[in-house]
Amino acid sequence: MFSPFEYKRPETLQEVFQLLNQDNDAQIVAGGTDLLVKLREAESSPDLLIDIKELEELKGIEQNNDEIKIGSLTTITEIKENKLIKNKLYALYQAASEFGCYEIRNRATIGGNVVHASPGAEFGVPLFALEAEVEVIGKNGTKRLPIEEFWYDVGRVKLDNELLKSIIININKNIKNSYHRLSRVEGMDLAVVNTALAKKSNEKYRSYFGTVARTPYRNEKIDEILGEEKFNKSTFAEIQDIINKSVSPRASSLRASPEYKKRMVVSLLKKCLRDIEELGDDIDG
Ligand SMILES: Cc1cc2nc3c(=O)[nH]c(=O)nc-3n(C[C@H](O)[C@H](O)[C@H](O)COP(=O)(O)OP(=O)(O)OC[C@H]3O[C@@H](n4cnc5c(N)ncnc54)[C@H](O)[C@@H]3O)c2cc1C
User: Fold this and answer.
1) Which residue segments constitute the domains of the chain, with CATH numbers given?
2) 223 alpha carbon to ligand 1 midpoint, in Å?
């Protein structure tokens, strides 16, 4: 059941910050696809909803020199259909293509996905692998910080009466990138597990695994092994061993057992690597 709340749709950032400062129980809403579920299940009962969909400053995808900036209000459909994203940040195109269904992709925003900070969020592992930075805007101006610092726990991000303004990715650093997920129901369930891999301009790799830890998980030893570039069955046996010893996925998950998750993230890593490199059959198995 929804509790009664006031609804405002400000047209300027200044109005948003005034409202946030006046009301401790105010809640930002973008696409509403996470928030409305929470309201219906009474997990959240704000007395004011601040709809930010009118704010032009938070919209659009643009390239400035080496960087692509994605406004937080960009919908998943806009990401999926953007040529710059498909050409330069293929992992984000893949994440947008796997996301929900047509109706949800049209409403849901990348900003909402990041701020909701769910362990299997579609854009978690690819943005961490791409070393994305976020721009946060508050009444005193804008600041920029790495996504790992911003998204620090399940459902927790560093915002203090502020908005996520945009997400910034350096395309020169990220030569090739890929994302894969596994879900129980094609298209309409959150990821059971997901993995992203980015190959860097210095030929190094950065891999991230989702739902095996509280936030997207990286193990530098795995990236060192990938950097050795002689991929065969023993490479992945070694990586599997590192994963088995280093993560303990939640046993109470309804989607999959810890053992299954640990095996599948490595299997998805192979798929990502196949997207990035010309590989023979020697990594099968
Ligand atoms: C049927 C269904 C299918 C789904 N499928 C998927 C899926 O496949 N993959 C997946 O990852 N998720 C999925 N989701 C979850 C959800 O759609 C996404 O997390 C979505 O990206 C949330 O974006 P939103 O704009 O709707 O966020 P909202 O619900 O509007 O907001 C989410 C949270 O972020 C805050 N917020 C939003 N924007 C900002 C901002 N700019 N600054 C500060 N705070 C902000 C809100 O206050 C709220 O706490 C699904 C949900 C449903 C209902």
Assistant:
1) 6-51 (3.30.43.10), 57-285 (3.30.465.10)
2) 30
